[in-house]
Amino acid sequence: MSLWTAEDAAAATGGRATSDWTATGVSIDTRTIAPGDLFVALQAGRDGHDFVAQALAKGAAAALVSRIPEGVVPDAPLLVVADVLAALEDLGRAGRARMAGRVIAITGSVGKTSTKEMARVALAGQGVIHAAEASYNNHWGVPLTLARMPADTDFAIIEIGMSNPGEIAPLSRMARPHVAMITTVAAAHLEAFGAIEGIAHEKGAIFEGLQPVGHAILPEDLPVTQILRDCADRAGAVVVGFGDHGSARPLRIVPQGGALSCHARILGDTLAFTLPTTGRHFAMNAVGVLAALSVAGADVAQAAAHLSDWHPPQGRGAVEDLGDIRLIDDAFNANPTSLSAGLATLAGLQGGRRVAILGDMLELGADEAAMHRAVADDPAMAEVDLVHCAGTRMRHLFDALPERRRGLWTETAAELAAIAPDLIRAGDIVLVKGSKSSRISAVVGALRARAAQDKG
Q1: Does 123 share its domain with 258?
Q2: What is the model's pTM?
Q3: 172 is in an annotated binding site
Q4: Can you give the residue ranges of the Mur ligase C-terminal domain (predicted)?
Q5: I need a labelling partner for 149 at 20 to 30 A (CA). Which of 311, 373, 418, 425 fits?
Q6: Rounded to the nearest 10 degrees, what angle do helices 413-423 and 441-455 cross at?
Q7: Range of the domain at 375
């Protein structure tokens, strides 16, 4: 199906098409490009112009460029623009403008990607659904998602993230959502904001892009909830709070094996649903999702029924049987709130020893040492048998732990990964958690390699 013609893309970007072409997709990566894609030569870590010839050789319909790349003939199918990123943004705006369906935008310090996936899975069978790939939520990820959106989309779920002040509002204005949801506000990227209140104001900026009489779905039980409400009020939004005291709230969350059986009150409707996870924070986000889908005009009962098909994305709290152990792979990101949620998931699983393998939490600012130490007092720690730590920041937690709970501390995640298979035994339930830049995911790789070796 045609996504962009040369004429439409040129009109959207103000660029010059060197020939007539039709693209069926949009790509920024030659490793995953599909025949028929429009290749966008972004300049990020490397200059995308260096890969245009390769993209065309792999069947790209055309390339979006700011110059004729070396090794590419002048009459190759190109769309030549002044600035590639600005042109991608223009394509995104044009993709949004031609779509008549409903747009749901999601942000939050924790749970953006898993919540976006919840919404996508829950909407199954309710028309053409379009959602961001992976965690494409930044200055190029949002316009790329919009540029990839089919014109006949019925529901779009757009993930919006940030790492510095002033990033969310422009992306929300580009997406122009009918519904905007904030999962939570926590001490993530605190270095750039100084205080949790600054993060709340930035998250609340997602409401600035709302369509007229749009809906703001926000967590009801946070110390900064009033800040979020004020942001929503300034945007003229209809506010729906979710949480233990919200108009969308859980009535009952009961563990059943490795799943949660949930009942919730969603804007007057009582719904039952099952989530294949033990993490209560996922159930709370599901309540927010159902509220968002309800005000977006979806069939909320049908959506609730499909939540049992959702699973936490890899690296974000997914529980898997790995040989003779159970692994909670939560190594994609970490802050005090998400680490607490990960420990709660570990505490909720039944089996052998509960072992936490933790890497540094980054970008927490001046209080990072105290925040790491405070993890020792997390209520879920009472159910954890052993804690191994990697990184200079995690040393503060390690030293704060009682002797009976201390495993090993290493300066780097690589050192811990090298001995990780020797730190576990059959029947263990193992949580691996840390900021992505801590590289604690190397431990996950080591445990997977151990399981593969044992199997082979």
Answers
A1: yes
A2: 0.85
A3: no
A4: 323-435
A5: 311
A6: 30
A7: 318-455
